[in-house]
Design brief:
It is a single chain. By secondary structure, the chain is α+β, with helices and mostly antiparallel strands. It has one domain. It contains 3 helices and 9 strands. The strands form 3 sheets. The chain has a 5-stranded antiparallel β-sheet with strand order 1-2-8-3-9. Strands 4-7 form a two-stranded antiparallel sheet. It has a two-stranded antiparallel ribbon with strand order 5-6. A hairpin with a 2-residue loop joins strand 5 and strand 6. Helix 2 crosses helix 3. The longest helix is centred in the middle third of the chain and has 18 residues. The two termini are 34 Å apart. The N terminus is likely disordered.
Length: 157
């Protein structure tokens, strides 16, 4: 019963997947400067957020951070999966009732549920390329990421 109440509380608090927002209780994104041109981008989702959404959040935050730092492109230096999983166990139960000389037993099996909360940690290098310079392989245009990825990202209302 307690596990059921816990899931209901999580549903009411979380409701749905994590929106693109600053890092908070239900997830979000954050950027921290590491060196003059390097940033750590972190994104965390709740149990209703899929991994592709978290990746979109990382790319969008990297692009926004790049433009805020005066850059035009960014390069992903390293990336790590920061997903977390939790397991919830609900015990089974048996109830026996007696009717006259006969006993009737009703059994409810237990369950094991695993919840995965996706996460991603990425280090990016911010670059400022001259206008109309073709980007080398492995470089991402901040403006293009904001244009294409930004249009599909769910933001808080």
């Amino acid at each position: 019963m307690r596990v059921w109440l816990f899931f209901m509380l999580c549903t009411l608090l979380g409701g749905c997947g994590t929106k693109y927002q600053e890092m908070g209780f239900s997830g979000g994104v954050a950027a921290q400067q590491v060196t003059a041109d390097t940033w750590r981008i972190q994104s965390r989702g709740n149990a209703y957020t899929n991994a592709a959404t978290v990746q979109d959040y990382v790319l969008l935050k990297a692009a926004e951070t790049t433009q805020a730092a005066g850059g035009s492109h960014f390069q992903i230096i390293s990336a790590a999966d920061a997903s977390r999983s939790s397991t919830f166990v609900t015990p089974g139960s048996s109830t026996t009732t007696f009717v006259g000389n006969q006993a009737f037993t009703t059994t409810s099996p237990g369950s094991v549920d695993t919840v995965i909360k996706p996460g991603q940690d990425v280090f990016v290098r911010v670059l400022k390329l001259p206008p109309n310079t073709p980007a080398a392989p492995g470089l991402y245009s901040a403006a293009e990421i904001i244009q294409f990825v930004g249009s599909r990202v769910q933001r808080p209302s």
